[in-house]
Design a protein that fits this description.
This protein has helices spanning about 15-25, 70-75, 105-115, 140-155, 225-230, 250-255; strands at about 5, 30-35, 55-60, 60-65, 90-95, 120-125, 165-170, 180, 185, 190-195, 200-205, 215, 235-240. It has a nine-stranded mixed sheet. A two-stranded antiparallel sheet has the order 9-12. It starts with a strand and ends with a helix. Helices cover about 25% and strands about 25% of the residues.
């Protein structure tokens, strides 16, 4: 029987995580190892400054006390899966998109990065949403994940080593085709809000940037943002090798 390890960065009680489990439970044995608290935008971080403990929530369901998504994958692979690796790792279903350079911030994507670093095929799944409204239906996300998992289990993982699938789901749709995309160019602004507590001490609270982007002119096809805007599920292959190969000759001449 196939075995899937799932995690997220929204915490072990997140409705997205539970929806992911429901979508997969009849396709394979599913083990959950998720952060005890929300770890959104923690990136690919590991906890090195204090010990970590698994806390059993249910059968094959653990929360990692004060751990990150990458911690969850790293420790699960070296303890629960010490004798046999899982067949697949899936991270999500994340509340909010992870497109363009947001992938570098994402704890959801980082868990998939950690998975492929250890040689396990991995998928990150995120649901686009308006954070001023409830999350909405996850049925399309569940359907899309099931489609991908069935294709992987009936054939093979479509990517070479150290590459993972980054999947983004459009909001408020019951059905949508899967479309292969590249990561778009994300625009960022200042969304740091200054406040004062009752004693007059200033503090900042970081907000959410609007999903502003542009396609990369040198690339053919649609970027992830465009696919979402056109009502498609965005499926982007992500490579962990961040070397800027095209700039190496320029750097050599500069040196």
């Amino acid at each position: 029987m196939k075995h899937i390890l799932i995690t997220n960065d929204d915490g072990y009680e997140s409705e997205g995580l539970l929806a992911l489990y429901e979508a997969l439970r009849d396709l394979a044995k599913v083990t959950i190892v998720a952060p005890a608290t929300e770890k959104s935008a923690c990136g690919h971080s590991l906890t090195l400054t204090h010990p970590l403990s698994f806390v059993s929530v249910d059968d094959d369901f653990y929360k990692l006390d004060d751990g990150t998504p990458s911690d969850c994958i790293y420790l699960a692979l070296h303890s629960i899966f010490q004798e046999r690796k899982p067949d697949l790792i899936i991270s999500g279903i994340n509340k909010g998109s992870n497109m363009g350079e947001d992938i570098t911030y994402s704890g959801t994507a980082a868990a998939a990065m950690e998975g492929v670093l250890h040689g396990v095929p991995s998928i990150a799944v995120s649901q686009v949403m308006d954070f001023t409204k409830p999350l909405g239906s996850l049925l399309l996300a569940q359907k899309s994940v099931r489609t991908l998992v069935k294709k992987i289990f009936s054939g093979s993982y479509p990517l070479p080593p150290r590459q993972f699938l980054n999947v983004n789901i459009p909001a408020d749709l019951e059905d949508a085709p899967l479309h292969v995309t590249y990561a778009g160019y994300r625009y960022y602004g200042n969304d740091a809000h200054l406040h004062r507590n009752p004693r007059g001490l200033e503090y900042y609270w970081l907000g959410l940037h609007p999903l502003e982007y542009r396609p990369r002119e040198e690339r053919e096809g649609l970027c992830d943002f465009e696919a979402i805007e056109q009502g498609m599920v965005s499926v982007t292959p992500i490579l962990l090798d961040m070397s800027a190969y095209e700039s190496m000759a320029l750097l050599r001449s500069w040196l």
